[in-house]
Specification:
The complex is a heterodimer of chains A (249) and B (243).
Chain A: H1 3-8, H2 11-23, H3 28-55, H4 58-77, H5 86-107, H6 115-146, H7 148-156, H8 161-185, H9 194-201, H10 206-235
Helix pairs in contact in A: 2-3, 4-5, 4-6, 5-6, 5-10, 6-8, 6-10, 7-8, 8-10, 9-10
Chain B: E1 7-18, E2 21-32, E3 36-40, H1 47-54, E4 62-67, E5 70-71, H2 77-83, E6 84-87, H3 98-107, H4 115-124, H5 141-153, E7 159-163, H6 171-188, E8 191-195, H7 199-205, E9 208-213, E10 216-222, H8 232-238
Parallel strand pairs in B: 3-8, 3-9, 6-7, 7-8
Antiparallel strand pairs in B: 1-2, 1-4, 4-5, 9-10
Helix pairs in contact in B: 3-5
The chains are: A mainly alpha (249), B alpha/beta (243).
The structure holds adenosine-5'-diphosphate (ADP) and magnesium ion.
Chain lengths: 249, 243
């Protein structure tokens, strides 16, 4: 795409800006900021990626992945404020998911160990793991709060913290995975996944694009399941003290 | 009051706080073993909180609690809570059937409640056997309270903590439950600590009574104290001015 064509895409920003102004939606400022930020951030990422790809240095790949994990942790951690030490728990979860998925991909020779594969796939895995963490934490804190009396009941009957929180934990793990599973059921019918569309537009063979998309989807299924279960089992013990009492607030 | 009785549970200068809020203030006293002690007082006095301290659902900020002469902190929480059983005020249920709720205490220990035992428990609390497979969400408030009592009995606790367990029951059911608890008390020498809003009930079923107000114990003694309280505030409470 030429720079002239790229500039013309700003028409797609002007339309909502005009609508916002005419209808007094008051979104003009936010949309302008969002546009400028996306231009700067994406261009910066593009140049950084180009630099990393050209250098083919494992150190740079490692640094990029580390940066993604830090940014994703920072984003997700705001949702789990009620859970002690949530920041490092999310970080450990993201690292675990990343190491596990890349380990399988590279270990079984599914994808080559080059920046071109590791970085975009890591981006998708870490990004999805972050969203799953947020979904899980939202649901789990709500479940714990809503069913405090059942937790207290099980403790009062001589149940352990794990028994007392088991239902809430399982419900939250299931609920956080549903969007991932549901979106896979309709994939291709309603809309083409972004990555696949991008590949096809860039000139790739559609069948090859589909193969990669399948790989990514299965990868994201693992990401979803492992994130919720891992984070869940790291989180629930901090809701109790050594005397097996439920800590409030 | 009870120098001739061994205490089942003894409180020694116990304070309890939530954040900066003082909920219980300097509680000292004993619950005699094998006897029924009732806890009365206006709502918000701290009765439920005191009961939760007795089976270690919460711990004091200051002071010490002894259960059968052993500091409560020395018990394994699981062992303590099976020995000191509690029927919670809100009669919480796990979702599922009446049987699943009755089975819960044993399920937590990897065991299973025999169906005959479940039926017998239902009969003890005055519920029909055909309720066994009913979903708990279909039960009335009174039925839930009865299931909650029956469930508490499954662990055969030595000390029974009852938090307003007859508040949603009609007169006949109330008498039935009172009779059941007295019977358990006589038959197994179970120590009972019973919170009730109903002063008549406290007078009839209790050997001893603690009157609580604003996080403090303001009067203790044989339950007949309620007929003629010495303390001015207790007097007002008994006359029904405060509720
Ligand atoms: N989880 C809690 N958070 C804040 N305050 C509480 C909590 N539980 C109890 N309280 C307060 O402690 C006081 C005593 O409550 P409670 O023991 O339930 O009284 P009672 O059973 O005598 O009605 C009340 O003022 C109540 O508002
Ligand atoms: Mg209460």
């Amino acid at each position: 795409m030429s720079y002239w064509a790229l500039s013309l895409t700003l028409i797609f920003v002007l339309i909502p800006l005009l609508l916002s102004k005419t209808l007094n939606l008051g979104l003009g400022r936010d949309m302008t900021v969002a546009t400028i930020r996306s231009i700067i951030q994406l261009l910066a990422v593009g140049y950084v990626l180009k630099f990393v790809f050209d250098s083919e240095s494992l150190l740079y790949i490692f640094l990029m992945v580390a940066l993604m994990i830090i940014a994703a942790t920072h984003n997700a951690q705001k949702k789990g404020a009620a859970i002690q030490g949530i920041t490092w728990k999310i970080a450990v979860t993201l690292i675990f998911v990343e190491v596990l998925t890349q380990g399988i991909l590279i270990g079984f020779n599914i994808t080559p160990a080059t920046a071109q594969y590791i970085i975009p796939i890591s981006g998708m895995v870490i990004g999805n793991s972050m969203v799953l963490s947020i979904l899980f934490l939202n649901r789990f804190t709500a479940e714990v709060e809503d069913h405090q009396d059942q937790t207290e009941l099980i403790l009062s009957l001589g149940g352990t913290p794990k028994q007392a929180i088991h239902r809430q934990l399982i419900n939250s793990i299931k609920a956080s995975m549903i969007p991932t599973i549901e979106s896979q059921k309709t994939v291709g019918l309603v809309q083409l996944p972004g990555m696949m569309s991008g590949q096809i537009i860039a000139g790739a063979d559609p069948i090859q694009a589909v193969q990669f998309q399948l790989l990514i989807m299965f990868l994201l299924l693992t990401t979803a399941a492992v994130t919720s279960v891992f984070l869940g089992y790291l989180s629930y013990p901090t809701l109790f003290n050594k005397r097996m009492q439920l800590l409030k607030g | 009051m009870s120098t001739q009785y061994k205490p089942a549970i003894h409180f020694q200068h116990v304070d309890y706080r939530i954040g900066d809020i003082e909920i219980l203030n300097d509680i000292t006293g004993s619950f005699p073993q094998g006897r029924i002690t009732t806890l009365v007082g206006p709502s918000g006095a701290g009765k439920s909180t005191l009961l939760k301290l007795c089976n270690g659902l919460i711990s004091p900020a200051n002071g010490e609690i002894f259960v059968k002469d052993k500091a409560i902190g020395e018990y394994d929480p699981v062992e303590l809570r099976r020995m000191v059983g509690m029927a919670l005020q809100s009669a919480p249920m796990i979702s599922g059937t009446v049987y699943e709720n009755l089975n819960l205490p044993l399920e937590l220990q990897g065991q299973q409640l025999a169906k005959e035992d479940a039926l017998e428990l239902l009969e003890d609390v005055g519920l029909k056997g055909d309720l066994l497979d009913r979903k708990v969400k279909e039960l009335s408030g009174g039925q839930r309270q009865k299931v909650s009592i029956a469930r508490t009995l499954v662990n055969k606790p030595e000390i029974l903590l009852m938090d307003e367990i007859t508040s949603s029951l009609d007169r006949a059911s109330k008498l039935e439950v009172e009779e059941l608890i007295s019977k358990i008390n006589r038959k197994y020498k179970t120590t009972i600590i019973w919170i009730t809003h109903n002063l008549q009930q406290a007078l009839e079923i209790g050997d001893y009574t603690w009157v609580m107000m604003d996080g403090q114990v303001v009067e203790t003694g044989e339950s007949s104290l309620l007929e003629d309280p010495q303390n001015q505030r207790v007097n007002e409470f008994v006359k029904g001015v405060v509720s």
